[in-house]
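Late entry, written up from scratch paper. The run itself happened at the end of the previous shift, but nothing got recorded in the book at the time, so transcribing now.
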Amino acid sequence: MSDGQEGAARPLRVAHASDLHGDLDPLSEVFWPVDLWVLTGDIFPDAPFGDLDGRDRHARAWFRRNENALRARFGRTPVLAVDGNHDFASLAALLRAAGVDAHAVTPEGVTLLGHRFAGFPNIPRMRGHWAHESTPEELARLVRRTFDAEADVLVTHCPPRGVLDHDEGHLGNGPLADALARGGHGVGHHLFGHVHATAGQRAEARGVRFY
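Output as recorded:
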């Protein structure tokens, strides 16, 4: 990604992490320096399945145990975060309260380092007990709001349907795939997670690069 500054040729150095489920070791494998961290959800560990009502409490307790390590790892580098279906607390809000320069991804968008980022955590419905599960109609409304933000970078938890979703169409977002295919937008990059089988892979279609 270009850094958006006039006359600048150096691309943005983005560290993208997703679906850590409480394991912070991969964050130490990122080569410094980076300009921006992008976290695309499921960073918190899974709560015990029998304690569904305590998932928010479980997430916050994990954060308290790891707050110092996260603050030291991110330092003064901006962090852009969208939550995932296993995240029952706002990671961006907790990081910001801990003194990290953290920003939550929203459909309305946020501008950082010369780029407009927009997105959402919502995923197609699965079993009914995960966070941010949504109907096709709800996803379609979120997609419309997100594209109204005129972002050049999308940040979501799950991929568009048919892109790095491991040939499992129910894992991808259909309305998002349709909106990208229609064109007429300025999106050049899309970062996401959710599908572990395609972690670290990249794709490109209709001028959009997917990570």
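The first helix runs from residue 55 to 74.
(Scratch paper discarded after transcription.)
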